[in-house]
Automatic annotation (TrEMBL):
Mg(2+) binds at D54, H260, H262, N296. One of its GO terms (molecular function) is magnesium ion binding. PROSITE patterns: AIPM_HOMOCIT_SYNTH_1, AIPM_HOMOCIT_SYNTH_2, PYR_CT. It comes from Pseudoflavonifractor capillosus ATCC 29799. Residues 455-576 are annotated as: Regulatory domain. Residues 45-321 form the Pyruvate carboxyltransferase domain. Its cofactor is Mg(2+). One of its GO terms (biological process) is L-leucine biosynthetic process. This is 2-isopropylmalate synthase. Pfam families: HMGL-like, IPMS_D2, LeuA_dimer. The keyword Transferase applies.
Amino acid sequence: MFFRPLAADHKEVTVMKKAYEKYIPFVPLKMEHRSWPDKRITKAPIWCSVDLRDGNQALVDPMNLQEKLEYFHTLVDIGVKEIEIGFPSASETEYEICRELIEGGHIPDDVTIQVLVQARPHLIQKTFEAIRGAKHVILHFYNSTSTLQRKVVFHMDMDGITKIATDAAKLIYELSQPVIAEGMDLRYEYSPESFMGTEMDYAVEICQAVIEAIHATPEKKIILNLPTTVENCMPNYFADELEYFISKLPSRDSAIISLHPHNDRGCGVATAEMGLLAGAERIEATLFGNGERTGNVDMVTLAMNMYTQGVDPELDFSDINKIKAMYERCTKMKVGERQPYAGELVFTAFSGSHQDAINKGTAYMEESGSEYWEIPYLPIDPADVGRQYEPIIRINSQSGKGGAAYVMHHNFGFDLPKAMHPEFGHIVQVETDRVGTELKPERIYELFKENYIEATAPYQLVRHSFAEFTDEEGHSHVTFAGTIRCEGSTFQVNGSGNGPIDAFFNAIHGQKMDRFTFVDYKEHAISDGSDSMAVAYIQLRDQEGKDHFGVGISHNINLAPLKGILSAINRAVTGN
Ligand code: KIV
Ligand code: ZN
C-alpha cells in the first residue's frame, strides 16, 4: 500500500499497489559495441566444484566427514582439478574435514583444494592454520560489494568496502609468504560478492585495488571470481556487464576471470555459457546444481552441453547413474526426473511421432554408418552417460503404431514385420485406453503373447511329422502328416509341397480352416537365455481381403511357421 495525496482537499487516501510494482527492474548497461554474441565456446573452462562448500551449506543436513570424503573422491574421479572443500574458519567440523583431507592423504597431486574465507583478519589467520601441509591451495576471500548490501547490510560507502577487501588482500599476502617459502603452491581468489548488483565501474575499481594489494602479476595471476550471488537479470545483460568489466580492468593480464552463477531466474547455465563467450575462463559449479536457494549452476548440464556441441568438457560423466546415486546418498537431495542428462525420464519418448522419428533415426544411423549422432529427439546418445538405450520408448495412449513394435524389438528381440505394426499397435492402444496409464514393456510383451503366441484355439496341432527329400534337380519335396484338434475332436491332415509351409497349407486344404491365402512370412532366431528359438510371423488373407497375422515360436524352425499359421487362423476365426 502507498499513500497518494489528493490535490483538492489535501486528504491522503490509500491506494492498493499491484504486488509486482514493488520490484525494481534491472537496468541493463548501455553498450555501444559487444563482441560476445559472435563468439563460440571451443574449449572447456577451468572447472571448480563448490559442492562441498556452497552446495553443502545449502543442505538441510550438511554432509558429515564420510559423506564429504566420498563426494570429494567422486569429484576427483570426474576429473575436477579445483575443489572448494569448505569454509574451515567457520566451524570446528569444517576445520576438521579440511585437516582430514590434507592429513589423510586424500588429495591427489594434480588437485588443488580451495578454501573460502570472509575478508576478516581472525578468520584469515584460522584459514592459514587449516591449510598447513597441503600442496596446492587456492585461498578464496570475499566481501559484498553490491549497492544493496552496502546500503542495507554494511552501511558503508565504496571506499569503506574497498578497504575491507584490500586490508584482507594485504594480510593474506603477508601470511602467505612463509607458507610459499616452505613450498606450498598457494594461489589467491577474490570474489566481489553480489557482483551482479555492483556498479560495474566500482567492480572494476575494487578488483583492481585487490590485484595491486595482493601483488598479482601475469605470472602469478589472481582468480577474480564474479558471482551472480542472486541471479537478477537475463544472461545477455550479464554477458554485457562481463564484457564491459573485462575491457575496463587495467590489470586484466594478471587475472583469471571466473564465474560463480546462481540460478534464481533459472538461467544459471545460460549465464555461464554467455559469460564464457564474454571472456570468462573458469566456472564454479556444483553437480546437479545443488546450492543456496535455487542452486548453483549445474556442472553436469554445462559440461554435457559443451559435449553435445562437439567440445570436450574434460569431465567424465560416462556413468551418470553412479554419480547421481552418490549425490543422492550424500546430500539426501533428489535429482529431478527431467533434470538434463541425468533425470529418470530424459531418454524416454512418450509421443508416438517422437518414437517413430527415433526409430527412423536409429535405422538411419545403422544403414548409413554415419559417424555423427543423427537421431531426432535424442540430443545425446544415452550410452555416452551410461544410460540404457532400451527404455527410451514407453507406451501410452499417445504412442504411434511403431512404438509397440519398437519395444518388442529393442526390449525382447521380436522383429515384427512392418505390415504387422498397425495391428499390434492397435491392440496396445486399446489396452492403454482401457487402463488409462502408460504401459510398461513387460505388459506389451504379455499382450503380444496373449494375442499371438497363445492363440491356440480352436485349432491346435497335436502331433506331426515331416519327410523331406531333394530330387536330382535339387528341388526339395516335403510331406507333412499331422493331427489337429478342434473343440474336442481330432482329425488327420496330410499334404506335400516344396517346403514345410507349402506342405502344411496343402495338408489343410479342404478343411474348414481352408479359407485363407498365404501372403507373407518372416522368421528369425530369438534367444531365450541360453536357449535359441525360432519365431515366425505369418500373414494370411481371408476371402474378404482382410489380413490376419499369427506368430509361432518353437525350437524347431519347421514347426514355428506352422504354429504361426494356426495362430493366424485361430485369431481370424475367433475374431481377434
Ligand atoms: O554466491 C556467492 O557470492 C558466493 C561467494 C562466497 C563466492 O558463494
Ligand atoms: Zn555462491
